[in-house]
Amino acid sequence: MTSSVDQSSVSEQARQAAQDFRASYERIQQQVCRAMVGQADVVEGVLTAMVAGGHVLLEGVPGLGKTMLVRTLGSALDLPFSRIQFTPDMMPADIQGTNVLVENEGGGHELQFEEGPLVSSLVLADEINRATPKTQSALLEAMQERQISVGRRTIHLQEPFCVMATQNPVEQEGTYPLPEAQLDRFLMKVHVGYPEEHEYLEILNRTTGTSEVVIESVSNGVEIMRMREVVRAVAVAESVSKHAVKLVMATQPGREMSTPLVNENVSLGSSPRGAQALILCAKVKALLAGRFAVSTDDIRAVAGAVLRHRIMINFHGIADGITADQIVADVLQNVQPVPAHS
Amino acid sequence: MKEQPQLQNQLDKLVSTGRLSLRRQHFWTGFPQQVQRYLVVSSFSALVYAVLSLLGRVFHSESLRVSLENWLWAAALYFVVVTCTHIYRSWQHRVDRQRTLMAWDQQCHLSDRLSSADQFLAGTKLQDSTDQAQWSGEARRQIEFERAFQLAAVEDAATHIQQTAEQRLQALEHAPPPRGLMVLLASCFLFFSIGAWFAKWPPLEVVSNTETNVPERPQNQAAEQVLGDDIASSPLATLEWQQKAAQAAKAQVEPTTISHSTGSPEQEEAKQTPGSTQSGRSAAATASTGSGNAQGTPTKQGQISKQSDTKTKAKPKKAKKPKPQSDADLKKKQDEEQSGATSGRGSSKGSNRNPAASDWSSRDHVNTPDDDDLDTESEVEDDEEEQEARGGMQPSLRDRRPPVSRDLSIGFGNRPNPDANGRGGPGQQKKSRGTASLVLGVPIPDRVKGQPNPGRTKITQEAVQPQVEASEAIEASLRQARSQVTSPLHRMEVQPWLHAVVRNYFLQRRAQQNQKS
Questions:
Q1: Tell me, what's the ipTM?
Q2: Which residues of A touch B111 (CB under 8 A)?
Q3: Is B221 on the interface with A (CB under 8 A)?
Q4: Which residues of chain A register pLDDT less than 50?
Q5: Which domains does chain A show, CATH number per domain?
Q6: pTM over 0.90
Q7: Searching chain A, which residue's CA lies closest to the CA of residue B97?
Q8: CB distance A267 to A248 below 8 Å
C-alpha cells in the first residue's frame, strides 16, 4: 500500500485538476453569458456536452438564440466554427466535401478534394431536421467515429469536434424526423424555452442599443481536450453505475424494472449509449459541484436531457399525449437509488 | 489525511449503527401489515365464533358453544406469536452494507460520498494487490489519474464521516398504514360481540314459544328453573319440555282462532276454509298478498289491454291515414331532400327529376309503408304545384329533348352553328374533326384512340385443341447460305487503344488469304 504522503500528493493532483476544470468552465460560461441572456440550463447543457466529448441537440422555437449560443461558444473557444443550414435539397457532398476539378500549375486539370463545412471543430447544424435522411446520415460517421469517408478518402476530424444541431418543433411540414440512430448519437437534447420577463428587458437593452458585445477568446482546443480528460477521470462507484443502468433499463418496455407507463407507451427505450451519456454528463455535474465522485443525484439530474431523445413513444402514447419527459419522470420516480422498503 | 484503516473503521461503525436502525425501520414498516394479517385472521375466527354461538343457540348444542374467554386467550396468543415472528424476521433481515451507507448519504445529503468512498477503499486494496506493471505509458498515467480522483473522493468523504457519526439514522420513509386496519379491528370486535351476545341469549325455541302463549312449564319442573339455565338447558330436559309444549300448543289452536274472529259471517266462513285458490282469504289479505305470490299473473294494466273494446279502438287507428305532418316538418324534409342531407335517417332518395338516380337508401334503414307514402305524396304535390304555376296540365318534356346535333357545319352566314358541338345521341357515330374531315367524299371512320375498332372491343375465347400437322423437315445439307443481310448487323465500336491491334489483325488475315489464293 502506498504511504499516506504519496496518497496526499496523488489526491492533490486530482484536486488541482478539478479546480482548473471549474475555472476554465466558469471562464467560458461567463463569455457565453455575455451574449446569451438567461437560459442558464441551456448554456450548462451545451457546455456539458462540449466538455464531455459529445454532441448536443437544441430544440426550440425560432428566435430564442440557439444559433447565437453556438456562435458565441465558437468565439469563446477560439475553435474553427462552421455553420450548415440544412435544406431538403442538400446532399451529403455538400457537407462532407467533394472532388473539384481545378487547374494546376502546368495548365492541366486535376481533381482536388474540397472539404465541406463538416470538417471543423464546432459545427452548427441549423435546422437539421430539414435535410433528407440521406444527408442526415452523412453526419453519423462524423459524430461517432470522428471521421469522414468520401469515396476512397477518409478524413480524420480534428479534436475537439462537436456537432451542435438545432431543430424547430413548430414547423413540422417539410421536415424529416431524425433517425433513431442519429438521435442516439447526441449526448443531450436540450429544450430552449422562452426567457423570463426580466431577461426580456436585458435582451432588449443589449441588442437594440449601439453597444455591441465582443466575445473574447478565453479557451482553446487544447484546454477543452484537457477538460475532457479530467471529466473521464472522475470516479464512479459501482452502486452509482448500477443506478444508471437501472434507469436506462427501466425505459425499455418489457423489462422487469420498467413501469406500466413505459410498457404501454414506449416502443423503443434507451440504448447502452444512454447509460454512457448518463455517466459522462454526471461526471461533469459532479466536478461542477466540487466533488470527485459521481453520485446518484448527478445521474438523476441529467437523466431528462440525456434520455428524452432516446425514448420513442409508440402510437398509443402519441395518441394519449404522452411525452418522453413524462416517461423519464415516471422512471425516476419508480427507480430509486435506495429503495425505501426492501 | 486520515489513514485508510481508520476511515474503514469509522465506516464500519456507521454501517453497524445504520443496520440496527434499518432493521428497526424494517420492523415498524412491516408491523402494520402483520397486524393487518392478524386482524384478518382474528376477524375470521370471531366470525366463526359468532356462527358457532348461533348454531349452538339454534341446535342447543353445548359442544358448539365456546366461551368468549377461551377465544380471547387464543387471539392474544396468536398476536404474541405473530409479533415474535416478525421481530425475529426483522432481526434476521439482511441489510446490505452499501444500502446502509447510501441511507446515511441520503439522510445527511452527502451525495453518495460515504458509499462511494467505501467502494473506492475496497477497490484501492484490490488495485494495490494486483500487478500494475502491465500498464505502461499513457494508460498507466490515466489509471493513476483516475485513482487520484478516487483518493480525493475518499478524503472528501472522510471530512463528512465525523459529523455523520454524531447523527442517528432516521427512517427513510414511513410505510403508509395499510388500508382497512380500523375496519378489520371493528369487524373483529363486532363479530366477538355478536358471538358473545348469541352465547348469552336464551335458546331460540324458548323465545318463540313464549311469544305464542305456550303454557308455562309444569309446576313439577319449576325446581329445574330454580336450579338455573344450565340444568334446564340440558338436552334431555329440553326434549321433554318441547314435547309437552307442542301438545299444549295444539290444544290452544282452536280457541285462539275463534277468539280473534270478529268480522262478518262471510269473512269468517272464508277464513275457516283456507285453500289454494285463496278464496277464503279476506279482501285485505288478498290485496296484500296477491301481488307478491302470483307468478305470471297479469297485472291490472295487462288485463285492460286484453279487453275487446280497446282492440276495436286500436284497429281504425292503425288503418287511419297517417297524421299530416306540420309545415315546418315538411319544409325541413324538402330541404333535406334538395340538399341531399338525410340527417342520418337513411332515406337519401334524392329528387325524382333525375330518372337515372337510384334509390340507394341505407340498408340499415327500415322502410315503413308510411314513409314511402309520405315521400310520394310530397313529390306529387311538387309536380301539381309546378303544373298549376304553368297554367294547367303540362306534358313531361324532360325525356323529349332533341339530341345534341353533331353537325359540323360552319353555320349560316357569319354566325356559328350553336348546335355544332360534334356530339350526338348514343346510337350515332361520332364525326371526325380536323383537316381530314374537311376533304369531301372521303369517308373517315370514327376511331377511338387505343381501340382497334369504333365502339367496344369484344373478346371471345375459344377452346382450340392442338392438332398434328404433317410436315417434311428440310435436311441441313440442303440449306444454303443466305445471299444478303437479313437484319441490321451490329457494328462493334472499337476502343481507341485497340485500333492498332485490330488493324494489324485484319491486315495479317488478308495477307494470309492473299497467300493462299
A1: 0.79
A2: 286, 289, 291, 295, 297-298
A3: no
A4: 1-2, 341-342
A5: 4-87+118-209 (3.40.50.300), 234-334 (1.10.8.80)
A6: no
A7: A239
A8: no
